[in-house]
Design goal:
single chain, 903 residues, alpha+beta, Beta-Lactamase, Alpha-Beta Plaits, five-stranded antiparallel β-sheet
Length: 903
Amino acid sequence: MPGFEPLPKDGDVASSAHVSDRGHPLMRAVDAARRVGASVWRSVPLQLAVFFLPLVWISYFAITASEKTEALQQARSHGDSVAKLFQENTERIFERVDQSLSIVRTLYAQDPAGFNLRSWGDRAHLASGDVVQFSLIGLDGYMLATTSGYSGPPLYLGDREHFIETLRQAHDRLYVAKPVFGRASNKWTIQLARKLLDKSQAPMGVIVGSISVDMVGNFYETAKLGAGGTLILRNTNYVVLAARGVDQNGFVGQVADERSQSRLSNPAGQYWSEGRTDRSNRLITVRRSSLFPLIFTVGIAEQEIYAHYESRRDIYLGGALILTLVIVVATTLHWRRQLALDRAQFELRDSLGKFEDALRNLPQGLSMFDGHDRLIAFNRQWLDMYGISPDDIRLGMTFHEVFAHQRAVSDLDGYLSDLKRRLIASEQTSNTLTFPNGRIVQISYGRRQDGGWVATHQDITERKASEDRIEKLAHYDSLTGLANRNLFKERIDEALARHRRMKTPFAVLLCDLDKFKSVNDALGHQCGDALLRQVAGRIKAEIREVDTAARMGGDEFALIVMPGRGSLRDGTSILADRLVKALAAPYDIDGHPIVIGCSIGVALVPEHGARIDEILRNADLALYKSKNAGRNCFNVYSPHLTVEADQRSLLEIELREAIWREEIEVFYQPVVELATGRTVSVEALARWRHPARGFVPPAEFIPIAEEAGLIVELGNLVLAKACRDAMKMPDDVKIAVNLSAVQFTKSNLIDVVKFALAESGLPERRLELEITESVFLADSAENLKTLRSLKALGVSIALDDFGVGYSSLSYLTDFPFDKVKVDKAFMDRIDRPETRAVLGSIVQLVRTLNLAIVAEGVETQQQVDEIGALGIPLGQGYFFRKPVPLADIVSPSSAAPKWQAVA
C-alpha cells in the first residue's frame, strides 16, 4: 500500500544503517557533486561551459578595470593640459597688464604733471578685454587718475591691501592682491600693483591694473571640464582671486585651509579633493607660475571622469550576463540529453537572439506583418517613431488596429490596398509619410513569401530639410552673375566624369586680381563691387559658352576651359594671355580711372591631375608662381612647383617654431665714418641658424615670414633683442633696426617701440628705425602719422634703399628724415659716369635738406675712393665688415679693433 514500509530483518540491519547514512544531507550533496563531476568529465560541451564561464567574467573584470584606469589617465592628461592652457592664458593677461604698468610708470615719471592716464590709455587701448581699468594712487592714499572715467568725489584707497602691501615691499616687484569691489569701476576685480617711482627711484605712490574676475569664465567656456568642473586662480598667499564651477560670490577672497595649502605648495601636481556634502570628489591639477605670484587649479568631477566608463561597464555587464545565460541554458539543455530538441531550441534561440539584436541595434524602425495583415515583429524604434506606447501594442494585432489612431493617412483601406498592389508588382517598394507636425518618415517595404511584408521606417525630417536648404542655395554669384563656388565644383565633377567616359581633356584657370585691395580700401566697397562686375564682364567676353567662369570669393575667379580646335595647352595659354591683357586695361569706376592686373595659374586635365583637389592645388601652385614672378602674368603648372611648395611649407613651420622659441639671432653690421674709421652706428640684421641646414639666407626666410604673417613677430623680436644688445655697446653708437610695412598696419608699433626702449633702458636718441618706400605705398597718410609719432619719441628715422623707388624724392619732402641710405645698386655701377652724376645730385639734395647720407654695399677700395670723392661721409658693406654676432663686434679680441673699421 502506498506509504507502508516493512521493518528490516536481522540480516538487514547493516543495510538499513547504510541507507540511513546515504540519506544524510551531506552525503546527498557529495553524491550530487560526484555525479556532476562525472558528467562534466564525459561531456565536451559541459567542459567548455566550465571553461568559458570563468573566462567571461575574468574578461569582464579585466576590461572594466582597464577602462577605469584609462579614464583616470585621460582625466589626468586633460586636467594637466587645461591647467597649462589656463596658466598660459592668465599669464599672458597678467604679463600684458604688468608691461602696461611698467610703461605707464615710466611715462608718468618722465612728466608727472603733464601725463594724462585716461587719454594715453584710450590711445593705447589699455582697458580692453579682461582689463577693467588702470589707476594711479598717491602716497596719501587718494586716487590721482584712472582710465575708467570716474568723475565723483576724491576716492581714498589707502586702506586697500594692494596699496598697503605694495608700498611695504622692500623690492620693486609686482604685487597681486585679493579681489576687491572697485570704488571707481564698480566691478569685482583682481588688483595688480607696482610702486610708482620718480626718476630717482623714490616712491611716489602706487600704479594699479585691475583685471575682471570674470576672465576665468571666458576660458572656462572652452575648457570642456564637464559637469562639476572647476577653475580656480589663487595668489601665493592662497587667496582665491577668481573661480568658475563653484559659487564665485562665496568663494572669491577666501583663503585655503592648511591641508590645501600644503598640497598647493608644490610647483605642479595632482590630488583628489575630499568629497563634501555640497560637492563631489574632484581630481585637482595644480600649477604654480614662475612669472607671477599665482597658483592655478583645475578640477574635474569624479562622476564626469567615470561617466563614460560606467556606461560601458553596464554594457559589458549586460553582455557578460547574456553570455552567461546562453552558456547556462545550453548546458542545461545538454544536461537533459534531449539532443534533437536541444539542438532545435538552441538554433531557434540563436536565430531569435540575432534577430532581436538586429532589431534592437537598427537605426531605423522595423515592423513585420504576415499574409493576414497581422503584426508579427517590431522594434522599439518603430514604436517611438509613431508615438505608440508599448502597453498599447501586442503581436497579432491587425494593420487597422495598430494604426487606428494615426493621423498621417486618412484612408487606411486605400493605403493598404495600394501597398499590396505594389508588392504584387514588385518585391520592393517605398513610400513617404508626412505627419501633421511636419515630421517626415520614409518607409521601405519588402515582400514576404507568405504574402505579408517587412518594412523599415526612417525619420528623414532633418535630411529633407537639409536637401531643401541645398536646393534653395543659388548656383550663381549675386554680384557678378558668374557661377559660384558650389556650381564651379559641380561643373568640375561633370568635366571629370566626361573625361573618364570620353577621354575629353579640359583646363582649370585660377585668377587673382592684383592691387584690388588697394582700390577697395581707397575708394570703398561700392567701387570695389563695381570693379568686380566689370572684371566679370571682361572675363565672360573672352570665353566661349562651353567654358565656365566662376567667382570663388573676394577678388578670386576661376575658369573651366574645354578643348578647341587646336591643342588644349596652346588654346589655354592664348586665352590666359588674352585675359591678362583684357583685365589690365584701364577701368572707369564712377569717374575714377583705375588700373589693376591679374595673376593666373593654369592646370591641365589629365596631364596635371585627375582629382578635383589635385587639379585645384596644382592650379593654385601655378598662381603662386605668377604672383612671385611679378604678377600680371600667367603660369602653367609644372611638377617642380609642388617640390618648391612642400619645401616652403616645411620651412614656414620651422621658422614659426624658431621665432616662438626666440632662436632667431641678431647680427650687426657697422656704419663707418670714412674720415676716421669710427663706427657711428650698427644695423641689426636677423639671422636664422637652422639645426639641419645651417644658416638660412635672409632672402629666403624673410619672404616666407611675410607670406605666413610672421613678419610682425619677427620684427618685434629683432627690435627687442637689438635694444637690449645696444646697452652693451658704447654710448655714442646708435642701433639701427629695419621696419616692414606690415608692422605699421598689423601691430601697435608705437607701443612696441616704447616697450622695447623701456624694457632695455636704451635712450631714445640711440635708436634708429629704417624704413623703405613700401611703407608709404601701403597707407601713406596713416603711416606718415605713425612715423611722426615715432619721431616725437626722440628716435631717428632713416630712408633705406634710397634711389630705387618711383617716388623716393617726394618722400624726402613729405617727412623729415634724419638719414638717407643710398641703395647698393649705385655701388655696383659707380664706375659709370651717369651713376656718379646721379649720386652727385643726391648728395647735393641731401646736403640741402641737412640729412646724413650713407652708401650701402661698399665692397672695394675703389668704391670707397669714389664715394669719398662724391662727398658721402659714411659707408657700410663687406669692405668694412660683414654682419657678425654681438659677441664678435664688442669683443676686444675680434678680427677688427673695437669700434674701428677694417680699412
